[in-house]
Design brief:
This protein is mostly beta strands. The chain has strands at 3-7, 10-13, 18-25, 32-39, 46-51, 58-60, 68-73, 78-83, 92-100, 108-109, 113-118. Helices cover 0% and strands 53% of the residues. The strands form 2 sheets. Strands 2, 4, 5, 6, 9, 10 and 11 form a 7-stranded mixed beta sheet that branches. It is globular, with a radius of gyration of 13 Å.
Length: 119
């Protein structure tokens, strides 16, 4: 049974930082691609960042480039999202997601963690 458990969300002032973690179990973590998505109230879920199975390549949506960093620790079966210089518009529920290297869609999702940035 695959489980993804996010943690690290919370309330922070604009300009502050948070680090989200997503601990995975029930799958071969090191062979999966991992991503972070977010959904703000009244908006569609959007892509935030992704990392390849090897960690050699990452990608980000334009609005977070230079502020957020995705990373992974295969020994701990955990993927991270370091968020710096947070802005009120970063407020959302953040989800981690994983997909096998053999598919193009993310097929495993966490339950989400709330990030609230106050101005």
């Amino acid at each position: 049974q695959v489980q993804l458990v996010e943690s690290g969300g919370g309330l922070v002032q604009a300009g502050g930082s948070l680090r989200l973690s997503c601990a995975a179990s029930g799958l071969t973590f090191s062979t999966y691609y991992w991503g972070w998505f977010r959904q703000a109230p009244g908006k569609e879920r959007e892509f935030v960042a992704a990392i390849t199975w090897s960690g050699s390549s990452t990608s980000y949506t334009d609005s977070v480039k230079g502020r957020f960093t995705i990373s992974r620790n295969n020994a701990k079966n955990t993927v991270y999202l370091q968020m710096n210089s947070l802005k009120p518009e970063d407020t959302a529920v953040y989800y981690c997601a994983g997909r096998s290297a053999y598919v193009t869609s993310y097929n495993y999702w966490g339950q989400g963690t709330q990030v609230t940035v106050s101005s």
